Amino acid sequence: MSSPITSAVRFRPGDTVAGLDLTATPGFEGSKTDAAEVQATRSARLAELQEMLYAGWKAGGDHRNVLLVLQGMDASGKGGIVKHVVGAVNPMGVRYTAFGKPTEEELAHHYLWRIRRALPPAGHIGVFDRSHYEDVLVVRVNNLVPQEVWEKRYDEINAFERELVDGGTTLVKVALFISAEEQKKQLLERLDDPTKHWKYNPGDVDERLKWPAYQQAYQAVLDRTSTDYAPWHVVPANRRWYSRLAVTELLIEALEGLDLSYPPADFDIEAERRRLLDS
Ligand code: AMP
Ligand code: MG
Questions:
Q1: Residue 122 alpha carbon to ligand 1 centre in Å
Q2: Residue 257 C-alpha to ligand 1 middle, in angstroms?
C-alpha cells in the first residue's frame, strides 16, 4: 500500500523551491515519535522488497533495477538517508556511488561517462549520492562550462533517463531541501564536534554564499527534468526524521510498482527433500 507521503512530495509543474515550507511533513500528520514507529515497520517492508528484487534477478532472470538519485545542498541529509534508509537493506543488493569533483580522467570524458559506469547491475538498488545533476547545478552556478554547454544538458539528461527507464530501471529522484538557517546550524555542529570534522569542507561555505543561485539552478532542474517517466520528488528536509521516512516510502512505492514475487524453484522440491534426508 502506498503512503500519502509519496504523492505529497511529487513535483508538480508550477511548484517553486522558494515557496516550500521546509519544516513541513507533507503527507504525514504524526509526530517525531510516531514517525520512529512507522519508520521501523516500513524499513522492514523495504528490506523485504529489496530481497525479492534481488532474488528475482539471481534465480529468476529478472533484469529490472532501481536507481535512487539523491540531490541536495551540503548538510541536507544525503548521508543520513544512505546510512539510515539504504542501511536498512541487505548491502549485497546495493550499489552505492558518491559523485564528487570530477577527476582528471573523468573530466577528459563526457560528463555522463562516470555516471554510466556507476549504474546498478540488474536486481540491485543503485544509490547516487549526488549525480549527473551536479553538471547543471554546481557547474551552472560556478560557470565551470559556458552556458551554451550546460543549457543543452537538460534535454540530454532527459534522453539519458528515458534510455535507463526503457532498459528496465525505475528512477527515484529526490531533491532534499533545507533552509539556509538549518544548513548553518548543521555545519556549525560539524565544526563543534571533532567526530564530525571529516564531514566538513571549507568549500561548503563558499557554495553556501551562492544560495540564491543554487535555488535558481535547482528550480531549473525541477522545471526541466521532471518527466512522467522519471519525476522529481521535492522533500522538505529540515526535519530529518521526515525526509528519511519520505525516501523510505518512495523506494517502497517504486519496488511495489514492479509487482515482485519470489521466483519459484527450478528444481523438484520433493526429490531434493528425499535426497537430502537420505544423505
Ligand atoms: P560531498 O558530497 O560533500 O562529498 O561533496 C562533493 C563535492 O563535489 C560537492 O561540492 C559537489 O558540488 C562537487 N561535485 C560533484 N559533482 C561535480 C561536478 N560534476 N563538477 C564539479 N563539482 C562537482
Ligand atoms: Mg559535503
A1: 27
A2: 32
Name the closest-CA residue to atom 21, ligand 1.
101
Cell (9 digits) for 5: 507521503
| Mean pLDDT, rounded, of the chain | 97
Position in ligand 1 atom list of the atom nearest CA 201: 3
Taking the C-alpha atoms of residue 179 and residue 241, their distance in angstroms, rounded to an integer, is: 16
The secondary structure of 108-126 as a DSSP string is: TS-TTHHHHHTPPPTT-EE
Q: Which class would CATH give 4-278?
A: alpha beta
Ligand 1 midpoint to CA 202 (Å)? 13
Residue nearest to atom 7 of ligand 1 (CA): 100
pLDDT, one tens digit per residue, over 18-71 is 989 999 999 999 999 999 999 999 999 999 999 999 999 999 899 999 999 999
Give the integer Cα–Cα distance in Å for 179 and 128.
Answer: 22
Answer whether 128's CB lies under 8 Å from 114's CB.
Answer: no
pLDDT value of residue 60: 86
What is the residue extent of each domain of the chain?
A: 4-278
State residue 19's pLDDT score: 87
Question: Residues near ligand 1 with C-beta < 6 Å?
Answer: 74, 98-102, 130, 134-135, 138-139
